[in-house]
Amino acid sequence: MPSRRAWVLCLGLPLIPVGAARSEVAEPAMLFSERAPLAYRALLIGIAAAGERLVAVGERGHVLLSDDRGRTWAQADSVPTQALLTGVCFIDARRGIVVGHDEVILTTQDAGRTWKRTHYAPQAQQPLLDVACNPRGRAIAVGAYSAYLVSEDGGANHHLQGDCRKWLDGKPRLVSTLNPEPWDLIIAHPPCTYLCNSGVRWLAPGGKLYKPRHDLMQEACDLFAALYHAPIPHVCIENPVMHKYAKDYLQSAWKVPRY
């Protein structure tokens, strides 16, 4: 069974690799941008240089190429989307990245002539609005509702940055923003600052309950419980040696068994 890799970032923690085995979930038919004789007159939103070539992107998945500094334009041969494309950048003269609505990300290895879809999440309803990349292959795509995706390999894979719980609620639109298949495995490292036994004394310094610290403990427990109960077949969570108050709260509020 082929495998993929994905990443999730939980509340400011380091990026966590998650090995995700491909599930048997049908992928929607891929739509390609159609040939249009007047595509060069359509709405174009982004443009970037691929060496001496100019590459412009816009509505209906149109990608246009010019090798004469913009005097004439030709459509790319293969673009696997009909979404509005909003941003484009090039790592070098051949490798480039395009982003757009439907949270789509495309990559090219031939200066924009053909494109491959590496990311697609229309259910998330978070259109991507721009992308920037550097010669080392690092790329950042940004979009609506604080969408922020990072790639270190020229757009082949992307890191999700934000509260991981919005991808773990079991809803089809959030099962996986990286690909149309559900998660099969999560390996999580939730913060243990407010859960571990070594810090329990700060809950009641001087024998009096310190409510701000107690509230932070409950927030940490809520995250731990969300990961523990995630609707994913295989869950692995780094487990701090918890103090009794965290265990009591997890058991009473979230039915997480004591251990």
CATH homologous superfamily designation of the largest domain:
YVTN repeat-like/Quinoprotein amine dehydrogenase
Question: Order of SSEs, N→C?
Answer: EEEEEEEEEEEEEEEHEH
Mind telling me the CATH class of the largest domain?
Answer: Mainly Beta
Number of strands: 16
**Overall mean pLDDT score?**
82
Contiguous helical run count: 2
Helicity, as a percent range: 10-25%
The largest sheet has its strands arranged as 3-4-5-6
Q: Could you tell me the strand content as a percent range?
A: 25-35%
Descriptive key words:
single chain; mainly beta; Methylamine Dehydrogenase, Chain H; 4-stranded antiparallel β-sheet; 2 helices; 16 strands; disordered N terminus
Detailed description of the structure:
With 259 residues, the chain is mainly β. The protein has a four-stranded antiparallel beta sheet with strand order 3-4-5-6, with no helix packed on it. It is elongated and about 75 Å long. Strand 9 and strand 10 (116-119) form a beta hairpin. It has helices spanning 211-228, 244-254, and strands at residues 3-8, 16-21, 44-50, 53-58, 63-66, 74-75, 85-90, 96-100, 104-108, 116-119, 128-133, 139-143, 148-151, 159-160, 185-188, 234-237. It has two domains: 27-167, YVTN repeat-like/Quinoprotein amine dehydrogenase (Methylamine Dehydrogenase, Chain H), CATH 2.130.10; 185-254. Mean pLDDT is 82; it is low at 1-27 and 171-180. The chain is 11% helix and 29% strand. The two termini are 35 Å apart. Helix 1 packs across helix 2. It is built from two helices and 16 strands.
